[in-house]
Amino acid sequence: MKPFVTQVWPQFTADQQFCDAFGSVIVDCVELHRTTRQVVLRLRSSEPLDQALCGRLCASLQEVFAGYELHLQNYFAYPNITPEAVRLMIEELKEKADNCPDDIELHRPYIDAVTIKCPKCGKEMHRVPEVIDCWFDSGAMPFAQHHYPFENQELFHKQFPAQFISEAVDQTRGWFYSLLAESTLLFNEPPYQNVIVLGHVQDENGQKMSKSKGNAVDPFDALKTYGADAIRWYFYINSAPWLPNRFHGKAVMEGQRKFMGTLWNTYAFFVLYANIDNFDATKYTLEYDKLPVMDKWLLSKLNSTVKAVDDDLANYRIPEAARALQEFVDDMSNWYVRRSRERFWAKGMEQDKINAYMTLYTALVTISKAAAPMIPFMTEEIYQNLVRSIDKTAPESIHLCDFPTVDEAHIDAELEAKMDEVLKIVVMGRAARNTANIKNRQPIAKMFVKAPEKLPEFYQEIIEDELNVKSVEFTDDVRSFTSYTFKPQLKTVGPKYGKQLGNIKKALAELDGNAAMDTLNEKGALTFNFDGNEVVLTKDDLLIDMAQTEGYVSEADNTVTVVLDTTLTPELLEEGFYREIVSKIQTMRKEAGFEVMDHIYVYADKNEKIADLIKKYADELKSEVMADNIMLGEMAGYTKEWNINGEDVVFGVVKVTK
Questions:
Q1: pLDDT (tens digit, 9 = 90+) per residue, 149-198?
Q2: What's the pLDDT tens digit per position in 118-159?
Q3: Partners of 600 in the beta sheet?
Q4: Is 481 helix (H, G, I), strand (E, B) or coil?
Q5: Long-range contacts, stretch 594-600, CB < 8 angstroms, 24+ apart
Q6: DSSP characters for 206-241?
């Protein structure tokens, strides 16, 4: 005897039957699937989208509906289940069942108590014991949660379809498709507008985590060890969401160091000096017209970053948004703050110092608001201390603030481009110093720069200061400092001109390097003729090295060449010696645990040469290390032996107490 069900659906015996019956539904699913934005959704199939999607959707629907005998005509008579349809079903049930209560509940276990006599044999019929696939319930979530259509119709239509959903890749045939299939059947529209599919979390070797393998990470232990913000940040910045993530402590700590640590150190720097000066941001305003170039640059970068992050988040580009935040924080800390430190050290509260405070304060508060969705706890801490501590009328939490508004008037693309060029030149200059094995504390007489355009004097001064170079000169020609050597790229030249390889090597070795490079850049190739055989070599056929002229070191890329004059005069060496002395005393200040604003006494002993140098630079040294006095030939306080450029010396530092 066949059991009965409360609704009657067809039992399909062949894939073709199923596809024929639901063919139009599947086509609708495909079309509606196309209207959603599948951020990172990737079908792992070599088949065309329609065929792959149809096949997977058929399989999913067949799993859901297989074995449930439902009357197809009855179902399609009520394509949208209405209260009237339910009422008719209940009436039919009461007619056929002697024990159906008036207030029958159609869900299990209540429906299990209702029985019907078989019209053929007279035996008792019971509801089938199987329950429909749970994914069918999950797909009904958008409307079932509101008991739609029986109530909350306005609320449902306000929230449907969802703007965004997200789950792991294993839900491709689960929740994502059940949502889409049921929404198509009932409403003929997609249930969501955007979907992000997340890759699985793996161990550091790329293996799936499991308890049996012993490579599973306890999330609560990880949270306790690294903190919630650090783990969140790792997943944002590490890779695209749809790719598998290799989770391990080193990677989490690296992200924590590069972004969160840098942001926190910048915040700590501001708090340190703001407390020393009793600075209150509510008592000042940011007067843009009075700002120097560095402040305007930071505000321009800030607004450009907020604009980029807002656009990235609106378009579900999560790693891109995270990288934009990280790049700005790096620029703010390692460029703006480093370039502006002396402004915070200045005595009093002059306009330039106010500008520096207000610019950094604005940047810290604004970037914290932009980063709050990603690192909610650290940004809350910064907000409470920087904003709520001095303005009780401000929103109670950073998460109750509006996302920052972009001030287009503060975005200066030209200024940002020029500063980017400065940074590029500085990086190349440091590389050239490393090649020459000359420390940054050792002054250099001159640097030549070949670039697409000459930077204004203000930017040249930044380069000089950053690279400790006395003079920077922009030039159109660096031929007198550099040349080029050429060798054949055997893997490309061999197959084409194997018999001419000897002639090619000889010809390349005899070239005027600079002239050949000019020809190569102008025409795209070097052309030779060996006994009537033409040989044409492009850049892909050549191994090109920049040759260094003695006394100069150079670095170059496609657009910029920098050349350092590495000749060190006695005067330059002496100044470099002095800079080393300053560095050692500053290190001792930190090691002794002195505060930033503590004044000290300096002691030096056991080296006459260094004593004479200290006498010569005494006033500068006192100013730089905040020394009230320098005692030579004596020793006291925290002491340490040093070897500076081959000279042994002992220094001592003592905090001045008043």
A1: 888 999 999 999 888 888 888 777 788 888 888 888 888 888 888 888 88
A2: 888 888 888 877 767 777 888 888 988 888 888 899 999 999
A3: 627, 655
A4: coil
A5: 594/653, 594/655, 596/272, 596/273, 596/276, 597/276, 597/626, 598/626, 598/655, 598/656, 599/626, 599/627, 599/628, 599/655, 599/656, 600/625, 600/626, 600/627, 600/628, 600/653, 600/654, 600/655, 600/656
A6: SPBP-TTTT----HHHHHHHH-HHHHHHHHHHHS-T
Asked if residues 394 and 284 have their Cβ atoms less than 8 Å apart, the reply is: no
Q: Which residues pair with 639 in a beta bridge?
A: 652
Question: In a 3-state reduction of DSSP, which class is residue 632?
Answer: strand
Nearest Cα neighbor of 528 from 498, 505, 494, 495 is 505
Locate the DSSP E strands across 104-200. Answer: 116-117, 124-125, 165-168, 194-198
Question: For residue 192, what is the DSSP state?
Answer: B
Confidence grade of residue 16 (pLDDT, cut at 50, 70, 90)? very low
Helix (H, G, I), strand (E, B) or coil at 82: coil
Instruction: Provide the pLDDT for residue 575.
Output: 93
403: which DSSP letter?
P
Cis amide prior to 161 (ω within 30 degrees): yes
* pLDDT at position 356 over 80: yes
Q: Which pLDDT value is given to residue 33?
A: 58
Integer Cα distance of 176 and 199 in angstroms: 15
pTM above 0.85, yes or no: no
- Using CA atoms of 262, 267, 272, 277 in order, give the dihedral in degrees to the nearest 10: 140
